[in-house]
């Protein structure tokens, strides 16, 4: 478990993204306990303050919640969970569009190629 | 909070520090970066009252540094601070004898973390392991601030990785750390606060996450801008 | 245990190995000296009495009886004393410089101990002082042992047994190393302690200002010596021996205290404000 830290994006944002991906792919289930700030800092090889900041932001966004002295858990709020997934998909799509636009590929051609390659890629 | 205000230092006729000011907060890792060697070590020495200064002020939580401050702030220089013929365990005993803030439990934990053998003599250690002993002695103290001078310089890659790992653990958590370096690749994503120095002055002081968030720049990007301007 | 005592203990243990070597060296040299000197004396006696038909009394009249005097004038006895003296003098510098120079920069640690820096300084001074006292005590303890060895080697008719006091008197520098009255003890050892502090101050000047500091240090030592000599010089050249010796001693003691105080004060200032690792 490690993230490849990108040097130009805030580290705490990258940590949040890591959690969002885990949630979206179901690796972290709704209501599941997550590692403590200290553990996650150690696992992801980041500064504990940064982990703290990421958890705080996630808590504010409602991605995780903490009751008393218990470990934090993933939210069980369906809307938030769906939003996370939507956000990631939208982000990927935006990036995709950006890439194909920059090399002047039409939507039809792109969609055709996506269809052609999507299943092959998955089969790999 | 550790404040360095308008610090000036001359070596003979050469003005090495021409009024350096910056602040390091508890719970943050502050990195003093300078391309050229001069000045960084002198700043740390001056903070610890290990060299005379020609002007300026150093305040720890609003008070000047006294002998009592050595229980609150410690310095890990880029040199051996124990006698080489000592065993690591003897060096630890020495620390225990003189410092109230020495935390034996944490010291043992650090021995384990760095995979050091307490019965080894300091003089018999590799450069990397010597650096680890230095860190062990500094970090096993329950101090609020830790100053580190070039902890990554001149040692092997795996030791550097292990030392960088310290910054991701509770061994550093909640403390204020000031670290000097001329090469930041080992710790770029770990530091909170950067002070860029050149020619005896502070050229820029910034928070790393802020620069990434607001300007989309890495620390190295900012360094390039500042030093090559 | 106070930090000062801990530091003294620490400094003593750092030098202990070498010190034990010095002690062993002194013992071996001096005892060997007794044996060698006794043998050569008895050899001489045999030669004179059997070859040259000299009578015992004639031999003793001509060459004297064997006593400590024969030993104390020899390299066997003076050698180790001079060497230990030189070693201790050298160690006065080494006790500071070893912490600064070379790979081991222990001075960082010493200056960052949460205690008054003067404790580090005084611990070093105390260590030197105790080492000197230790060597003197060793010498005093060695005299009776050497006397016994001498008794084994030389028959009673050829011997002049001296007691410790007489032995001490047979040494040129005895009055300083082995003072016989408490007053003398305090005077000589007080002067010794003062010298350590003056030299330490000079060392700290060098450590604070480097090249310029060497010059200041030398001037400081000269100034200290000058202050001590001042009463004697003034009395000699301006008052033409007006003062009684006891008055002169009194004033010199006051000057000595002044120099000691000045050294402590200056060292305190340098250690806290000027010294550089």
How would you characterize the overall build of this protein?
With 124 residues, chain A is mainly α. Helix content of chain A is 63%, strand content 3%. Chain A has one domain: Winged helix-like DNA-binding domain superfamily/Winged helix DNA-binding domain (Arc Repressor Mutant, subunit A). In chain A, a hairpin with a 7-residue loop joins strand 1 (64-65) and strand 2. Chain A starts with 10 loop residues before the first helix and ends with a helix. Chain B has 229 residues and is an alpha/beta fold. Chain B has a single domain, classed as Rossmann fold. Helices cover 82% and strands 0% of the residues of chain C. The longest helix of chain C has 56 residues, at 182-237. Chain C is globular, with a radius of gyration of 24 Å. In chain C, 28% of the residues are buried. Chains in contact: A-B, B-C.
Structure summary:
Chain B is α/β, with parallel strands linked by helices and 229 residues long. Chain B has helices at 40-47, 88-98, 104-113, 127-139, 157-166, 208-215, 219-227, and strands at 2-11, 14-24, 29-34, 55-60, 63-64, 73-76, 145-149, 176-181, 193-198, 201-207. Chains in contact: A-B, B-C.
